[in-house]
Description:
By secondary structure, this protein is an alpha/beta fold. It has 2 domains: 4-119 and 263-300, Rossmann fold (3-Layer(aba) Sandwich), CATH 3.40.50.10860; 122-259, Rossmann fold (3-Layer(aba) Sandwich). It is built from 10 helices and 12 strands. It has helices at residues 31-41, 63-73, 97-102, 121-132, 148-159, 172-186, 197-200, 245-252, 261-276, 282-300, and strands spanning 16-23, 45-52, 77-80, 94-95, 107-111, 114-118, 140-144, 164-168, 191-193, 206-209, 233-236, 256-258. The strands form 2 sheets. It has a 6-stranded mixed sheet, sandwiched between helices. It is globular and about 60 Å long.
Amino acid sequence: MTNESSVAAPGVETPKLLVGLIGAGIQRSLTPRLHEEEARWHGLRLHYQLIDLDTGAGDVARLPALVDAARYIGFAGLNITYPCKQAVIPLLDALSDDARELGAVNTVVCRGMHLTGHNTDWSGFATAFKRALPNVPLGRVVLLGAGGAGAAVAHAALRMGVAHLIIVDRDAARAEALAQSLQRLYGAQRVEANTDVADALGAADGLIHATPTGMDKCPGLPLPAELINPSLWVSDIVYFPIETELLRIARARGCRTVDGGGMAVWQAVGAFELFTGIKPDAARMEAHFRRMLAQGAVAAA
Length: 301
């Protein structure tokens, strides 16, 4: 799609930016097209490079070399996704207050040789959630997943007013560590860790899923299907596929739900502004994202 604002004046060189995404299993990510299309509307030439640990970039042990390469090549910024959101922190020169509090980075801004880590996941989740489920009860909420994405979502949930957050992770020590860090910030009575998802869901108002389970590369359910009852609202941060097995079952049982698409868009809105210094059109980005999802569904049919 072309538009007048994407055409530079004769003799004027269009600004160029190189950004990228580091993560595992990201070949179907819509983020490159989302950023590149919005950049065109602002008269920017932006190239968004996927750096996939599953297709030759190596594993997390290669992360220091990849970050250094981005520093020396002249990237304007990086998005960081699973499984690197926490591992990238020691490799950076500075952190925003949010990234420091969350202990997770999803956006790195490169200015010369100086790299600063930010987190737009928490604000992306909060904005998307409030738009999709504005009036749901927030008394007792279960969070599945205590990794980088889970940490961001936990902060968002507590900032949105969740009264009591229960964190469940297959790694009990990681869940406990996240709970303790949140207790210091938000109060000991508002957060706990639990190793038993069935027990955690007792009398819960809602369930937030923040693990890789359900992604194309990690299909399946993150909890036994019988625990998904109609009294729950269910939020999933996975967006590929946009309807995960968790959401499909939850909707069939009458739960109010929100998919991961909104968070994907709104974290990208924040990242785009950090990379470029330009405030993007969030509504346009979301419309483009949903069109890409629809086109992908048709192509796969």
